[in-house]
Amino acid sequence: MKESYDVVVIGAGPAGLASAIEAKKSGADKVLVIERDREPGGILLQCIHNGFGLHTFKEDLPGPAYAQRFIDEAASVGVDLLLDTMVMEVSEERQLWLSSASKGYFSLDAKAVVLAMGCRERTRAQIRIPGMRPSGVFTAGTAQRWVNVEGYMPGKRFVILGSGDIGMIMARRLTLEGAKVESVLEVQNYLSGLMRNYVQCLEDWNVPLHLRHTVKRVIGKNRVEAVEAVAVDEKWQFIPGTERIIPCDTLLLSVGLIPENELSKKAGVRLDPITGGPVVDQNFQTNLAGVFAAGNVVHVYDLVDYVSEAGDQAGKAAALFAQSLLTPAKKTIPVKAGKNVRYVVPHTLDPLALEKEDIVLQCRVSQPIEEDVWFEVRNETQSIVRRSDRYARPGEMVSVKLTPSMFADVMQADALTLDIYAKSEA
What domains can be seen in the chain, in order of their start residue? Predict the structure, then answer.
């Protein structure tokens, strides 16, 4: 251990490992990754299904194999790794306070910090499901850990609330292990995860999905005995007379992910109220100079390959900052969420950065559009870029690229707005 580092990355998941590797490649001499778990890899270690690496490696890999590629590369380029250690606090001056069983309570300094703590699942308490508090109510990620890593089955007969990707993947996994998945209930009138997971994990395994349905109450005192399902209207109000009892011994919750930002708040990082993650610029730098954020800690991605790409960008920028090579922005332009857009990342950009390289705007739509659709970025007076696609869905992240050819139009803007709308509305 050293007392100071050029770049310190908090979190050894896909974003953190990618950040550290790219920081090292970009000239940072001393790079450290701090991980609270006993081994690097993050959530990927329990994701034994395929589907990782198609963009990054042009291969179809399971989660642990994808993580191992980055773990091996981090070791080969000389990244230091500190495991089983909690970061307790990060100051605005980039001093970190840490705690571990082996070293106790200690501190170190960094020229640049990358926040890559990932995200966590919403729990029953956060969505306020009525009923007793029996055993047998788990988040889908907890069940995934039990089955894939620990070798335990949490139940035999399941209901899954929420059509998030982890929940749908666990519907297939539990079925393969001999369990019965009675139903997946989704309060929205659309899928909240990827369509490919619906097809491969629910449709292919005859698991029924009920949209505009939720759990009204959990039945059971010591162990879950059943759930009462109910249909809801467009305002999520229960529709009387639609209640039905579904016998089960386990309820899994796949009701959304929240960026893990307690450290960010304590440090004074400004957070986006929509995403729950830091407000960042095109370099993934926060409002605190030298503090960057990458991956699911900023906003929840749909594919891990894109998480790694964000880590690359943040790590490179952190290394440049540590070497005093990152030029402060002379002008900052806000990027606003327009028609049918929940949020946009980055939140601000330096137009001068567009002279040298592309800037990719990422967002999610508020409502699905199941027809030909326009993605349009405009300034106050004109459209800067417009591209089309066959559809836009909340479960799938949307990207729009700004290129150096658009520099003049971006440079004269006071703000940029991203709109997404059906071509029939144009």
Answer: 4-120+258-326 (3.50.50.60), 123-255 (3.50.50.60), 336-425 (2.60.40)
